[in-house]
Amino acid sequence: MKKITTTDVLIIGAGAAGLMCAASAGYRGRSVTVVDMGKKAGRKILISGGGRCNFTNENAEPTNYLCQNPHFVKSALSRYSPQSFIDLVDRHGLAYHHKTLGQLFCNDSAQDIVDILLTECEWAGVTIKLRNEVLSVIKNSNGYLVKTNETSFQCQSLIVASGGLTMPKLGATPIGYKIAEQFGLKVVPTTAALVPFTLHEHDKQRFDGLSGISIDCNVSSEDGTHFRENILFTHRGLSGPAILQISSFWRSGQAITINLLPENKLSDLIANWQENQGQKSLKNLLSTVLPKRFIESLIKSGEIPDKNINQLAHAEIEALCHYIHTWQIKPNGTEGYRTAEVTLGGVNTDEISSKTFEAKNSQGLFFIGEVIDVTGFLGGFNFQWCWSSGVACGQAV
After folding, report:
1. What are phi and psi for residue 48, nearest 5 degrees?
2. I want to staple 242 with a disulfide (CB 3.0 to 4.6 A). Which of 16, 126, 229, 327 is the partner?
3. Which CATH architecture best describes the domain 196-334?
4. Cα separation of 195 and 201, whole Å?
């Protein structure tokens, strides 16, 4: 029989939320153990933001999160704000920089964020056990008995910080959802979010050769949600910040609408061109405001006319303006959990306290981070949710 290790708090998952929670609980004098099936702590942190980790967003507020209960995130975010985490990294001397839209990135490496979290855990007396896969969870009179492939743990408080299903190569599993269901908690159906789109074969052929082209656009979903950032053509379809953002609102079978010229009114440009550059081709003039290869692909497929600017009839101009400002494309699907940044859906927040993150029907059982039905926008919002939910829970166990 395996030896049983006793700990006040056991946390499943050594990611952003789990490590933050561990340090918070440890500083309160609780004995804390973190188990993770991986070889390293914070694996998803390490690859985030192109290896530089967009660790928070200065503008994070409840409206930046998708959740069936939009009020659920308010308590944790108000108690541990982006500035709270910025103060933490400042104390550790982290070198970081600001990007557009409130995003903060490490100057050097995402490893710096992991090192800060591990240092905090060390100072708080936290024990981290890697290569420990959870095999079973049993509730008993003393709390919870958790068996792993290495040992068994008896704890008063069990915190599930196992993340979602994104990036299975990094060891993502549905263990958190299974534990929730085992104890009678509902799970909102999950899907990949903040994820690139794949295109139907005819569109892939149409845009073959455009990989790497980026366009500043305003992208809208059928429910009216829209984001103004770049889109990026890839070998398989469409990516870029605006596409990743809108993917959280897109549903299979729907189209997305893209304003390819959000800064300009094409009708005004055409009027100016007709007056001053009438002999020039539409292709060459449009190529001054949009990528030339993209315009050539639209002319080749007959989407826009191959004429000089002064040859365009009024009806053609109207159709062209409508096309450029409301370009519609129907994705075939997404690239799925393999490349998604987060998982949409998760443990239903109606089952969890927004103050402590304890399951309402199982005393001593907590869920934090991505495993919950809370999904942030792109740009550091999901990490902030991990910090906020981790601290709120760590202060309660």
Report:
1. -75, 150
2. 229
3. Beta Barrel (2.40)
4. 19
Topology adopted by domain 4-191+342-394: FAD/NAD(P)-binding domain (3.50.50)
Pairing of strands 333-334, 197-198: antiparallel
Q: What's the predicted TM-score (pTM) here?
A: 0.94
**Cα–Cα distance between 210 and 237 in angstroms, integer?**
10
- The answer to whether 227 touches 242, Cβ cutoff 8 Å, is yes
Collapsing DSSP states into helix, strand and coil, what is residue 369? Answer: helix
| Of 327, 323, 328, the residue nearest 267 (C-alpha) | 323
Q: Quote the mean pLDDT of the chain.
A: 96
Give yes or no for a contact between 39 and 131, defined as CB atoms under 8 angstroms apart.
Answer: yes
**List of residues 6+ apart from 306 with CB closer than 8 A:** 281, 282, 283, 299
User: What are the structure tokens assigned to 100, written together?
Assistant: 């557009």
Q: Give the residue ranges of DSSP H helices in the chain.
A: 16-26, 43-47, 74-79, 82-91, 111-123, 175-182, 201-206, 241-247, 266-276, 282-286, 292-300, 314-325, 381-394
CA 163 to chain centroid: 12
Question: Residues 6 or more apart from 161 whose CB is under 8 A from it?
Answer: 11, 12, 13, 15, 17, 18, 21, 176, 367, 368, 369, 371, 390
Which 3 state secondary structure label does DSSP give 373?
coil
CATH 2.40.30.10 region(s) of the chain? 196-334
Residues 6 or more apart whose CB falls under 8 angstroms from that of 119 comprise 92
Q: How would residue 283 be classed by pLDDT, with cut points 50, 70 and 90?
A: very high
Percent of the chain with pLDDT over 70: 99
Distance CA 366, CA 346 (A): 14
CA 221 to each of CA 195, 200, 320, 321, 326: distance values in angstroms, whole numbers, following the listed order:
14, 18, 21, 20, 12
CA 112 from centre of chain: 20
Cβ distance 128 to 41 under 8 Å? yes
Q: What is the pLDDT of residues 249-266, one digit of tens each?
A: 999 999 999 999 999 999
Q: What is the pLDDT of residue 3?
A: 84
Could you tell me where in the chain the CATH 3.50.50.60 domains are found? 4-191+342-394
3-state secondary structure of 85: helix
Spatial separation of the C-alpha atoms in residues 242 and 244, rounded to whole Å:
6
Reference 216, options 376, 54, 100; nearest CA is 100
- One-letter amino acid identity for 15? G
